[in-house]
Amino acid sequence: MFDFEADGIAAKEDSLRLAAAELKEALQGPAGGVSDLAGYELLQAALSERLPDLYAKYDAYVAAVLATGNERVTCAKGCSHCCSHYVTSVEPYELVHLHARIRGGDAYPSRVVALHRRASLFRTLHDGSEGDDAEDRALHRYYLRNLACPFLEAGGTCGVYESRPMSCRMFHSLSHPKLCKGKGVVDPANRNFLIELPEDIEAHLARAGSAFAGFALPESLFEGLVKANELFGRFDSGGAEKAEEDGAIS
């Protein structure tokens, strides 16, 4: 489908590899392995300098890979069906970086409430499930609820597009958009796919994430940001807990 050995791909991959290594080194320096607010500020400064470059290099790598295919992806601005997924496999530095960029806005308190509700719903869907595919079943049941991401804006655009995590950046489709919605995701004709990172780059980024181990941030986007709010935020999520008791999801 795509030619990862095509001309120009290796150069983009090397550039991405360098950005990942630089992020790892920046986070594993004097600020590495901390769990207090002073250390958080140091890590945040390193992230502000390095993570946008990593995202830009990954996006360039993906664009080069997609250009080698004989079909065009059907993803387009305003098509936001994938924004009803429960986003997992988010690195802790991504959560910290994104949280720092949303906590000062007027919409922050309402977003924390919405994030809390979605995280609580997913826990409810997952609790009691058994078997190796329990999480996959919970993810599918969550998706069928058709709850838009709290960062989705009018017109189907992402309100944190530049800071969205790698899990969101990896997802693409060659199918008609209707197959990215609801039960269409299990249709045999649905051709969603991920463009994942090379293994050695994944290793660099895993090491980068270990600098935040002391904060014990969850790996899912919504629950992780709720935890980040508790650690570094400015909003008392008691309102979110009350909303959960009332059974309101919005």
CA(first)-CA(last) distance: 39 Å
Oligomeric category: single chain
Q: Overall mean pLDDT score? A: 87
Shape: globular
Largest sheet: 2 strands, antiparallel
Distinct helical segment count: 9
Kindly report the spatial arrangement of strands forming the biggest sheet.
1-2
- Sheet-strand content, in percent, reads under 5%
Order of helices and strands: HHHHHEEHEEHHH
- Overall number of strands: 4
Radius of gyration (Å): 19 Å
Structural class: mainly alpha
Helix content: 40-55%
| Low-confidence region ranges | 242-249
Descriptive overview:
- This protein is mainly α.
- It is built from nine helices and four strands.
- A two-stranded antiparallel ribbon has the order 1-2.
- Helix 4 (108-126) crosses helix 5 (134-144) and helix 4 packs across helix 8.
- The chain starts with 8 loop residues before the first helix and ends with a helix.
- The relative contact order is 0.19.
List keywords for this structure.
250 residues, two-stranded antiparallel sheet, mainly alpha, two-stranded antiparallel ribbon
Protein topology:
Elements: H1 9-27, H2 37-66, H3 92-102, H4 108-126, H5 134-144, E1 152-153, E2 157-158, H6 166-170, E3 171-173, E4 192-194, H7 199-209, H8 221-232, H9 238-246
Antiparallel strand pairs: 1-2, 3-4
